[in-house]
């Protein structure tokens, strides 16, 4: 692959990711969830399975513990998460999504599905499936990090 082709592919992937993030954000706001930013969604993705400590969240987001702590303070204040005692470490606090946080997460999933359905309309179901499989091979599931 020539450098110009690599740059064109890079630009297309970044544009698609940026558009997806923007449209999910718009969809979440349209569903009544004010005061959330895409960075919150990346945090929610880590908190959703069963909660996380601030340290775990910081590692997931690729930020300092202080930055993760500030983000947690924000989502707790807005009612999207709460701090609970950690079941395995008396010194730590587990950050978990509240019902409002789960509802916001579901709204983001609905918005993402709308975007992806649009891609399938353009590409066709088969090509959309191939795209998902190819991207899954080169970018396997792992931490979802915002581009600050």
Note down, in words, how this protein is organized.
- By secondary structure, this protein is mainly α.
- It is 66% helix and 7% strand.
- It is built from 6 helices and 2 strands; from the N terminus they run ααααββαα.
- It has helices spanning 3-30, 38-47, 54-61, 65-77, 99-123, 125-138, and strands at residues 81-85, 93-97.
- It has a two-stranded antiparallel ribbon with strand order 1-2.
- The chain is globular, with a radius of gyration of 17 Å.
- The relative contact order is 0.14.
- The model has no long low-confidence stretch (mean pLDDT 91).
Any descriptors?
mainly alpha, globular, two-stranded antiparallel sheet, 66% helix, 148 residues, single chain
Question: What topology emerges from the helices and strands here?
Answer:
Elements: H1 3-30, H2 38-47, H3 54-61, H4 65-77, E1 81-85, E2 93-97, H5 99-123, H6 125-138
Helix pairs in contact: 1-5, 3-4, 5-6
Q: Beta-sheet strand percentage?
A: 5-15%
Shape: globular
Count of helical regions: 6
Helix content percent band:
55-70%
Work out the oligomeric state of the chains in this entry: single chain
Distance between the termini: 29 Å
Strand line-up in the sheet with most strands: 1-2
Low-confidence stretches: none
Please count the beta strands (DSSP E, at least 2 residues each).
2
Structural class: mainly alpha
Q: What's the average pLDDT? A: 91
Helix-strand sequence? HHHHEEHH
CA radius of gyration: 17 Å
Report the major sheet.
2 strands, antiparallel
């Amino acid at each position: 692959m020539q450098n110009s082709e690599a740059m064109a592919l890079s630009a297309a992937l970044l544009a698609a990711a940026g558009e997806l993030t923007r449209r999910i954000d718009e969809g979440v706001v349209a569903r009544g969830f004010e005061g959330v930013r895409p960075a919150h969604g990346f945090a929610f993705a880590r908190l959703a399975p069963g909660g996380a400590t601030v340290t775990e969240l910081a590692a997931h987001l690729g930020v300092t513990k202080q930055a993760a702590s500030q983000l947690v303070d924000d989502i707790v204040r807005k009612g999207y998460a709460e701090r609970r005692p950690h079941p395995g470490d008396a010194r730590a606090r587990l950050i978990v999504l509240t019902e409002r946080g789960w509802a916001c997460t579901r709204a983001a999933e609905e918005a993402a599905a709308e975007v992806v359905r649009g891609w399938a309309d353009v590409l066709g179901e088969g090509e959309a499936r191939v795209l998902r499989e190819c991207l899954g091979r080169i970018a396997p599931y792992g931490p979802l990090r915002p581009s600050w």
